[in-house]
Amino acid sequence: MKPLNRRQFMLTAAAGLCSAATGHADWPFSGGGNSVDDIRGHIFKQDAPAALWKWSTTAVYFKRLDKDTVVCTLCPNRCRLSPGDRSVCRSRVNLGGTLYSLAYGNACSANLDPIEKKPLYHFLPATWVFSIAAAGCNFRCLNCQNWEISQSRPEDVRHMELFPEAVVAAAEQSASTAIAYTYSEPTTFYEYMIDTARLARAKGLKNVWVSNGYINREPLLALCKVLDGANVNLKSISDAIYRRLNGGRLQPVLDTFVTLHRQGIHFEMTHLVVPGYGDTIEMLQRMCAWILKNLGPDHPLHLLRFFPRYRLDRLSPTPVATLIRFREQALAEGLHYVYLGNVPGHAGNHTYCHQCKRLLVERQGYRIPTLNIKAGHCRFCGTPIPGVWPEDGA
What we know:
The chain is an alpha/beta fold.
C-alpha cells in the first residue's frame, strides 16, 4: 500500500470524521457517497424532535413533493426530507409534511462588535454593530472557526431568548448603527434574520449579512430588500476545493456575488488563504480575473491569515510573506482595495486612495485614528471612494 503524505492523511482523516459524525444519513443530492474529494453534509434521518418548541417557525422556502415529503429551497443543498428528517444545516425539520425552522428567537450568541470585525472596512467605520447568531450551517468547513455552534443542532447549544423585537431593542439600547447576522451561517436562520432585519429597517437601523453566500436567488433577492451591507466569504475560485474543504459548490457563491452587485448592495469579500488549498499566485490571479470581469475593481477583498483550527489543527499558519505577496499581486491585477486580515500592524490594514495613493483610513486594531474621507470622497484628490461612509446618509 502506497503511504499517504501529510496532506493526504489529514484530508482522509477529516473525511472519516465527517462520516462518523453523521451516522445513518442520506445525501441531500442523488447518488454518490462521502469521500476525500467531497465532504458535503448529510440529511439526518429521523432526527427531528418529537414536537416543535417555542423557538420554531414555519420555513418560508420549501416545496411539498407529495403529501409528506418536502424539499427545502432556501440554499443549494436542496435537502429532500421525509417526515422526521433533519436538514444538512441541522436547523430545519420535516414534521407532518411541513418544513420548520428550529432557530427562531433563540440566539446562541449576541455581542456588541466594531464593524471592522466583520470585516467591513468601507461601511460606517468606527461604529458599533449588534451581532447575533443561531446554531447551524449549510457547509462543513474543515477549518471552521465557530464549529461549536455552526456544527450543532439548535437544541444542543446554550442560547438566550431573543426574538426580533428584543434584538432591535437591544441594538437601539447599545447605540449600534446596525445589526449583523454572523458567527455561524445566518442563511440557516433565515426567517429569524429577515424578520429582525425588517423591524430594524423600520427603526432606522442598518442590516449586515456575514455569510458563506450559499443561498438560492429567490430568498437572496428578498433579503436584499432590507440589506445594507455584507461580507461574503469566497473560499476559493476552485469548485474542487469547495468540495473537499467546505462541502459546497463554487457556482452558487459566485451567483450570490453577482446578485448583490446588481442589487446595489455594498459588500466586501474575504478569502482565507489556507496552506495547501489553492494558495498559489495562479489561483489568486484566476480569482482576481473573475472579480474584475463580473464585479469590477471596487469591492474590497480581505485576504485572511489562516490559523490551525477544528479539523485542520495540524496545518501551519499562513506565512505572512505569502499574504503580502498575494496582496501586492491582487493590486497589480487591478483590484483597488485589498486588505490583510489577522496580520496586526501591517500597512495592508489601512485604506489608501486608489487614485492619489494617500492614506484615507488608518486602522490600529479596531481603532480609527485617521479618517480622510469626506462625503464619500478622498479628502485630498476628490476621488469617489466606494462604500457607505458616515456623511453619506446612505
